[in-house]
Q: What sequence folds into this?
């Protein structure tokens, strides 16, 4: 009799264990974050990046012992590989600003730790060459943002060598190679994030005089419009998305931010719905085994978001993670 009970108990335990393992496997399949191919360059954070077609480009940044870099890499979406390109021609730096217009990538500003830069360079992927363009007309700085609305590039915000924050913005015309100052944002900020959805740019996060900023703005090329703040309370939950240097990408008409820093390194991922001016939380960046980080580069291709490189404290990373949203 006792032997029968022992056998029955063992059978139940085996069934429960099998069910548990099956459930774990199903959960893993539902994870929004999974690992992709590692970045082929040295680990780094605060790199500059831009998209041209379906390919992402990454250059500059800083890594171990605050070494700055000028190597440039292309993530080839068709082969899922990183390929070395022509080196960035300016001084090595981190915290540079970047954008792309009409199939040309642009990188400028940034710092080497002691010097702030205002130079800018254009990258032609067809010839794999760089050329210097007109200097940024504002104060030399790092931690600024850039975006493109209706085919026009805008650069602004950031912080200078005296830790002065800025809210000035400038429009760049590649045809005339000229910069024109436009209306400033209502609040100064550095190390903010930005993304563009349907030719409207959204600007949020960052710090102002060392305090984390909660204001969030939309810009249509003419007017800055304040949206719901990045911290507060909805009918569903209390939220706080204030942060600096998160990774950013856009998928299917939604903006996403992942990681960043607010007092400590973050791993949360949030989706912004521009139609309802509302944020929704997704799986944490760390769910698939990644390390929480800031200063990572984010981009998206074919409905998949990617986050690569980044830093947490003095630790730099060279891993790449992909995000497939479960809506």
A:
């Amino acid at each position: 009799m006792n032997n029968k009970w022992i056998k029955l108990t063992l059978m139940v335990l085996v069934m429960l264990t099998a069910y548990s393992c099956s459930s774990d496997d199903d959960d893993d399949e539902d994870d929004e974050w999974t690992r992709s191919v590692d970045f082929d360059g040295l680990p780094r954070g605060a790199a500059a990046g831009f998209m041209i077609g379906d390919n992402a480009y990454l250059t500059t940044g800083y890594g171990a012992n605050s070494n700055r870099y000028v190597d440039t890499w292309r993530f080839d979406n068709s082969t899922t590989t990183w390929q070395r390109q022509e080196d960035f021609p300016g001084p090595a730096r981190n915290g540079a600003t970047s954008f792309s217009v009409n199939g040309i990538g642009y990188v400028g500003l940034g710092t080497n730790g002691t010097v702030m830069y205002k130079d800018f360079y254009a990258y032609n992927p067809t010839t794999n060459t760089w050329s210097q363009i007109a200097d940024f007309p504002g104060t030399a700085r790092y931690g600024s943002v850039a975006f493109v609305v209706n085919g026009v590039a805008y650069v602004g915000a950031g912080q200078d060598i005296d830790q002065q924050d800025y809210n000035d913005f400038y429009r760049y015309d590649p045809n005339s190679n000229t910069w024109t100052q436009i209306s400033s944002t209502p609040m100064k900020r550095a190390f903010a994030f930005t993304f563009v959805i349907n030719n409207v740019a959204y600007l949020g996060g960052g710090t102002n005089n060392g305090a984390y900023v909660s204001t969030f703005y939309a810009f249509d090329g003419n007017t800055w419009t304040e949206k719901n703040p990045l911290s507060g309370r909805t009918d569903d939950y209390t939220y706080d998305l204030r942060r600096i240097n998160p990774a950013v990408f856009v998928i299917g008409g939604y903006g996403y931010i992942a990681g960043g820093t607010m007092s400590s390194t973050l791993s949360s991922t949030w989706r912004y719905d521009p139609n309802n001016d509302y944020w929704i939380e997704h799986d944490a960046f760390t769910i698939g085994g990644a390390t929480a980080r800031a200063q990572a580069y984010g981009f998206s291709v074919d409905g998949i978001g990617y986050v690569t490189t980044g830093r947490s404290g003095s630790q730099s990373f060279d891993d790449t993670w992909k995000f497939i949203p479960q809506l």
Residues 1-27 have pLDDT under 50 and may be disordered. The helical segments are 2-30. The chain has one domain: 37-323. The radius of gyration is 22 Å.
